[in-house]
């Protein structure tokens, strides 16, 4: 008897179709639509009515107490900041990121800290052997007697380890490597990912054990597998960073227990991942004397204000078409700022090569950095360095006006805390006035 088919689904985004197609109708990827077998009878829906279990009866909302969600700190301050104070018992957390960014290292450190705090932790990996995990734990100092390792790819075996260990925290690395014999198809398929995630989340909710699921990402950076996976979990965290730098950022895309606009900063080293509670020094140069073509700004990453230094270099072009090279900033916005500088501020840039970059590999995508970019370019054109204690915050319009930005008060407070005594912002009114304030400050200091 032929196997009954449950239709076809995309292995990248989970889009379903009644028949096979060569291209996914949702993510437009070619060759990702595969047949999905129908689940067995044990997973089929039933129409029989069943009495609710004791203590699970439906009750009026007015009779239910509004108990506060208790967060348990992980011992890693930056991770607790992103999670809203720590891990909530029974929470399901999805941890995604590109290969090699440091997801496993960070979670192994968090698991070891939880074990050192008196808990029992189960770390189940389907990608590495226990010996490989042990070697990384020795290198990063994540060894503890109540941290249990298991190298398994079978869901039933992992559930058996949970029954034996009775952990207070479960880490599964990764959800795409586990498979259940109750569902046809290989590990990582949409049906398998749904079944594995649903089973682990059900255990977390019934027993009050927090579970952390590591998820693979696709080529565009989204979580691999069906979109249902992100709906099932309580928290979705994304770990990102540039492989050319040691800096890593942790962001929350979804959080039922806290804010989603927080960001955690970490630094990758040979000894593992260490948190960076105050990353202000990572994005600023350390030259003793002011250098022309540099200007500091205050960027907002979630609710955290970070000082970032913008550097610009202007040189005579040897080609008919001058070069515009950017790193860490939007090239289209830099081109617009250069046009405003030439039209409104009298800067001669049409025959000059312009290079604009940020320090530390951070990326600026908000308009609040417009004024800092403009002042850095003007400083490079005139070869006049700006003072070390000057920061610029503001958006530049096509009319040459300096407009206020979101979070201006918080940015200004952070600038004062970091020692920036002079702040050029929307109070200058126009770009011409901002230039006079910024470039005239050094001249007054020299005369004095």
UniProtKB/TrEMBL annotation:
GO cellular component: cytosol
Pfam family, one: Zn_ribbon_LapB
One Gene Ontology molecular-function label: zinc ion binding
Any one Gene Ontology BP term: recombinational repair
Annotated motif RadA KNRFG motif, positions: 254-258
Binding-site positions, ATP: 97-104
Annotated RecA family profile domain residues: 68-217
Region Lon-protease-like, annotated ranges: 353-448
SUPFAM superfamilies: P-loop containing nucleoside triphosphate hydrolases (SSF52540), Ribosomal protein S5 domain 2-like (SSF54211)
Keyword terms: ATP-binding, DNA damage, DNA repair, DNA-binding, Hydrolase, Metal-binding, Nucleotide-binding, Stress response, Zinc, Zinc-finger
Organism superkingdom: Bacteria
InterPro entries in the cross-refs: AAA+_ATPase, DNA_repair_RadA, P-loop_NTPase, RecA_ATP-bd, Ribosomal_Su5_D2-typ_SF, Ribsml_uS5_D2-typ_fold_subgr, Rubredoxin_2
HAMAP family listed in its UniProt record: RadA_bact
Domain comment (free text): The middle region has homology to RecA with ATPase motifs including the RadA KNRFG motif, while the C-terminus is homologous to Lon protease.
Sequence similarity: Belongs to the RecA family. RadA subfamily.
Main function: DNA-dependent ATPase involved in processing of recombination intermediates, plays a role in repairing DNA breaks. Stimulates the branch migration of RecA-mediated strand transfer reactions, allowing the 3' invading strand to extend heteroduplex DNA faster. Binds ssDNA in the presence of ADP but not other nucleotides, has ATPase activity that is stimulated by ssDNA and various branched DNA structures, but inhibited by SSB. Does not have RecA's homology-searching function. Plays a role in repairing double-strand DNA breaks, probably involving stabilizing or processing branched DNA or blocked replication forks.
Protein name in UniProt: DNA repair protein RadA
Taxonomic source organism: Leucobacter chromiisoli
Classification of source organism: Bacteria, Bacillati, Actinomycetota, Actinomycetes, Micrococcales
Gene: radA
